[in-house]
Design brief:
With about 425 residues, the chain is of the alpha/beta class. The protein has two domains: about 130 residues, Aspartate Aminotransferase, domain 1, CATH 3.90.1150.10; about 260 residues, 3-Layer(aba) Sandwich (Aspartate Aminotransferase, domain 2), CATH 3.40.640. A hairpin with a 2-residue loop joins strand 1 and strand 2. The longest helix is centred in the first third of the chain and has 21 residues.
């Protein structure tokens, strides 16, 4: 069958597709082809079942209750913390903080670490590949603390200029915050080298792993990053949940981000003392159901095998890149040799929005626009791109439908 491909572990893509109910529907009379995975991935039945099991079997608040349902919920919640620690190879589960996603994680670090540690004249280094979520929080704290933001430039191929980065580092550098992989171009950044150089300059590091979690091996101890964050919904998990990893010593030195229940040890009107990490940063009733279901997403990736998944996705990326490059007037944006499965492109004389809209009439879902990376689009001299992003459940046959759809777009609009 053309639509079946082995991904190295004896599991075929068609078998994996059976785990994703949403894929088996028609959009505008056509079979759904979902190539918007960099925005959010679809969810396997294991994740959906975990959500239903919590709400129908042991819905209760966690940590505070002594009754049976509360104990079951607390156990399941903390099992996800242990799984996340293993997934990232954290030193301990106490280094895992649950957040709504990467956006909240970066805001937490910027507000807590940044507000307590930064001083007037200090410098924060970002990169030209960053999502707005890794720009705006730093701008807010830089304005408040009268700090300066420095930006690692991007080459024409969509890679970071490491020589320029070395030139930016100095005795005033306090924080270096970059993504592991670009959501717009797919570029995989040499984060281990970036972290090492930052530490040599005395800076702490934060790595935005939103686009890496489902694709790349992540070992925070080997990377030696100070913070690492990921979003569940980009790795086959629920929306509204994510993970912030932080080195325990740094987390212990940081003040709380939010106040309320659970993050306290003792409260009086005169003074409040804080709980231990990670609970110091988890105020209020958390997103219990989705944290519990996130474990199933970790298990899905680990059980399928990241290396096998990456091999399959890389095959689709290579095939799609080769086929698209032959289309008249089409230009691939971001040509790094080291990429996750993201393919951005423009077609001369056709607006990305029109391309996306016409593909949707044939059931093909892609992303169009600036992808929350307006500074990067400005660097590339573009208003936006069309972005097709691939996941383990995508097939070569679906890629052929994308090529055919683009041929129709070009034929109709040009």
């Amino acid at each position: 069958m053309e639509n079946v491909a082995s991904i190295g572990s004896g599991i075929e893509v068609e078998e994996i597709r059976k785990l994703f109910p949403i894929l088996h529907q028609k959009i505008n009379g056509h079979d759904l082809v979902y190539f918007d995975n960099a925005a959010t991935t679809q969810k396997p039945v294991q994740v959906l079942d975990a959500l239903q099991a919590y709400y129908t079997g042991y819905n209760a608040n966690i940590h505070r209750g002594i009754h049976t349902l509360a104990e079951r919920a607390t156990t399941a919640f903390e099992q996800t913390r242990a799984t996340a620690a293993s997934f990232l190879n954290a030193g301990s589960k106490e280094e895992i903080i649950f957040v709504r996603g990467v956006t909240e994680a970066i805001n937490l670090v910027a507000s807590s670490y940044g507000r307590s540690m930064l001083k007037k004249g200090d410098e924060i280094i970002l990169s030209g590949l960053e999502h707005h979520s890794n720009i705006v929080p730093w701008q807010l704290i830089a304005e408040e603390k009268q700090c300066h933001i420095r930006v690692i430039p991007v080459t024409d191929s969509g890679e970071l200029d490491l020589l320029a980065y070395k030139g930016l580092l100095n005795e005033r550098t306090r924080i270096v915050s970059v993504n592991h992989a670009s959501n717009s171009l797919g570029t995989i950044n040499p984060v281990k080298e970036i972290i090492k150089l930052a530490h040599q300059a005395g800076a702490v590091t934060l790595i935005d792993g939103a686009q890496a979690a489902a694709h790349l091996p992540i070992d925070v101890q080997d990377l030696d990053c100070d913070f690492y964050c990921l979003s569940g919904h980009k790795m086959y998990g629920p929306t509204g949940v994510g993970v912030l990893y932080g080195k325990k010593k740094i987390l212990e030195a940081m003040p709380p981000y939010m106040g309320g229940g659970e993050m306290i040890r003792q409260v009086t009107f005169e003074k409040t003392t804080w709980n231990d990490v990670p609970y110091k940063f988890e105020a209020g009733t958390p997103n219990i159901a989705d944290v519990i279901a996130l474990k199933s997403a970790f298990d899905f990736i680990s059980g399928t095998g990241k290396e096998a998944m990456a091999q399959h996705e890389s095959m689709l990326l290579r095939y799609a890149t080769e086929q698209l490059s032959e289309l008249k007037g089409l230009r691939v944006v971001g040509i790094s040799k080291n990429k996750v499965s993201v393919l951005s492109f423009v077609i001369e004389g056709i607006h990305p929005f029109d391309i996306g809209q016409m593909l949707d009439t044939r059931g093909i879902a892609v992303r169009t626009g600036h992808h929350c990376t307006q500074p990067l689009m400005d660097r590339m001299g573009l208003e936006g791109t069309v972005r097709a992003s691939f996941a383990v459940y995508n097939t070569r046959k679906e890629t052929d439908k994308l090529i055919e759809g683009l041929q129709r777009v070009i034929g109709f609009l040009k």
